[in-house]
Amino acid sequence: MSHAERHELRPRNSNPCRGLERFREGKRKRPLSRTELARLWAHLKEIEATENPYIVAALRLLLLTGMRKSEVLNLIWADVDLEAGLVRLRDAKTGPRGVVLSRAAIAVLAALPRQAGNPYVICGHRHGARLINLNDPWDEVRNTLDFPDVRLHDLRHTVASILAHRAPLVVVRDALGHQVIETTSGYSHTASDAVRAAVNVLAQEIAGTMP
User: What pTM was computed for the model?
Assistant: First the structure.
């Protein structure tokens, strides 16, 4: 209604919802348990020979980096530095930021085929385009594994939960790109090393190699 008013499709101040308070929805978090996480990682290994490799890679990157779905799907090769083990996001939710990559995440990216003329890391069906729909493949995966209540964004919550048990909150903040809580927002060498150590432990735990 407000949008219609702005475009002069309705008279000004005619929105019948004006003044109504919005219903507050509680934020829902459903991180995976360790058993569910192990089953998911094993399932991705099982389907990688038959499933679209970009879909499998996208799901693995969500787990290994804690990046948002939009950040993974919009990622371009120009922003990936495999040698430095870093992704430089130009337009993340909280502004430009760097994502420190674990060895496992680097391996996922290095194994992906690059399509000539396509700048995107996670390629779609159309030439030169990115993958658009990750929700339908995820629905199939989560229903197969019998946790249909787990959303794609819950993979990020899972990463946050694991990191929070193994690293200081400031490291978790930097790894996930949350709003900064100190005056500095850049990576010092010390902070970067701490984040890299944390994401490597994360990758080991996800892959089931932790004791």
Answer: 0.76
